[in-house]
Request: fold
Amino acid sequence: MSIALPGDGFELDDCENSDTKKIGPGLMYRNDKIISTKPGILHKENNKVWLESSQKRYIPSLNDPVVGIVTAKLTDFYRVDIGSHQLAILPNLAFESATKRNRPNLNVGSVVYARVTVANKDLEPEISCMSILNKSDGFGELSDGFIVHCSTGLCKRTLKPDSQILEGVGSNFTFECATGLNGRIWIKANSNKETIQLSMVLKRLDYSPDDNISGIIEEILSK
Reply:
């Protein structure tokens, strides 16, 4: 693990299985080197190389989970704001068991949890409310609740299998959440008061290490 700045590069030979190297967002190939296009922490594991960074503007990446807001309802698809430079397309049939006669009826302002299925800088992003196995698996419309806008770094910390954030927050709140890698976390607690308190905790954690979770929760609950 090392710090990478824009323009930094390293040889493919430095990594194992360089012939089948897979790179993540924030990295690009150039002259047999992997070049970083933004600052972050560089990780290398087997044949994978990725850059862990925190940013406000979301750049769509294939299979990323995202929290989106419907902005327009058209004949065959919806336009959804996912925080990128373009609105995403959500086809009417991109839901489990959806048909032309039987499909979800979303309205402008509806919140959806979806997966990026098309991520190309020359095309509009496309999303789906199904997993790669064509099952809902938690994707779909999110009713009520509240969206916390944060950095993409906090979203990645929340989605880790051993996330200290969810463990710490879960011991003090009963809630539902859907985390998108586009800098949005949808939350729904037992009451409006708890939802607001939970959102305050998450916003504070955006700029604090995980070790401060207990102190932040105690401070907010005492108010």
Notes: The first helix runs from residue 152 to 159. The chain has a mean pLDDT of 87.
